[in-house]
């Protein structure tokens, strides 16, 4: 079987659904992720659905998000939420834990983690105030 996209390499739809489910499990249960969890609705189902659809296309699978919602415009969609380095790091903590549960080539996992880290960093819309250390 020829693997042509990262979506194929991770195992396709079912594996991606499992990844998203585990990601939100960690977000919902890790004390270290309480900041990122707090900016989500109580019911995580809509967020799970959107992340799955986004990652599907982002990894080279079906463009489910674009088909339903149009261009992702991720930064614009995240501007209503306060996202600083802490929120980025909490998001990555949950994603890295979820990715660790997938059986994949270690270098491939590192490549995905690096790409997601760049994407998560792009979502930052708050910078620490140098004088107070608080996010503004």
From TrEMBL:
Keywords: Heme, Iron, Metal-binding, Transport. Pfam families: Bac_globin (PF01152). Gene3D superfamilies: Globins. Coiled coil: none annotated. InterPro entries: GlbO/GLB3-like, Globin-like_sf, Globin/Proto, Hemoglobin_trunc. One of its GO terms (molecular function) is oxygen carrier activity. The keyword Iron applies. Belongs to the truncated hemoglobin family. Group II subfamily. This is Group II hemoglobin.
């Amino acid at each position: 079987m020829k693997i042509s996209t990262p979506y194929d390499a991770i195992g396709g739809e079912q594996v991606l659904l499992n990844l998203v489910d585990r990601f939100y499990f960690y977000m919902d249960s890790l004390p270290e992720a309480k900041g990122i969890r707090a900016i989500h609705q109580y019911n995580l189902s809509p967020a799970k659905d959107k992340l799955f659809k986004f990652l599907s296309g982002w990894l080279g699978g079906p463009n489910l998000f674009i088909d339903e919602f149009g261009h992702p415009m991720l930064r614009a969609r995240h501007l209503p939420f306060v996202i600083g380095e802490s929120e980025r790091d909490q998001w990555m903590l949950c994603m890295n834990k979820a990715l660790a549960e997938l059986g994949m080539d270690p270098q491939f996992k590192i490549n995905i983690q690096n790409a997601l880290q760049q994407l998560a960093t792009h979502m930052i819309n708050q910078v620490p105030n140098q004088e107070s250390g608080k996010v503004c």
